[in-house]
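agent: user wants the structure for Innexin from Amblyomma americanum. delegating to structure tool.
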Amino acid sequence: MLNLLGHLSKLFKLRMVHIDGNVFGLHSGIIGAFLMAFCMLLTAIEYAGTPIECYCPTLPESVVNSFCWVDSTFSLRSLFNVSYNGSVIYPGAGPGRGDRKYRTYYQWVCFLMFAQALCFNAPRLLWKAREGGKVPAIMDALNVRSAITHDRADPRSQMVDFLVVNMNRN
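agent: tool returned. relaying tokens verbatim.
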């Protein structure tokens, strides 16, 4: 009786089957999560705060900020160490023309980071959808077969034999 229960316990033993490796899990899980977290952080700063502030005293502030949001702004290299009335608005900011250094604000970075996060997670989602629980089912069937037949042969050869016999049955 105990011998029979021992064989039955092998049938109902819970085993976790991993369908991907460590590198694949790191690639699709952790890196994708980091990209999504940084995307959310950047989006919160960009849309909840003030992502860019431009200064032009002759025009309304909202118009200038909208223009700077869409177009690039610049600073003058000749004015990097110059102060006006004892204060510096920004190194290189001031009136005049000269050697310009353009600064472009990329407002689309958060959308690109979101797309990257999706691209990192897409292979795992596709793999799980296409795999459809076949690997755990094969492992369970192989365990049941070895428990019933008491066959202690090489697990790899058993797996190959099982796959050859059951090819195109799912």
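agent: one observation worth passing along. The first strand starts at residue 73 and ends at 76.
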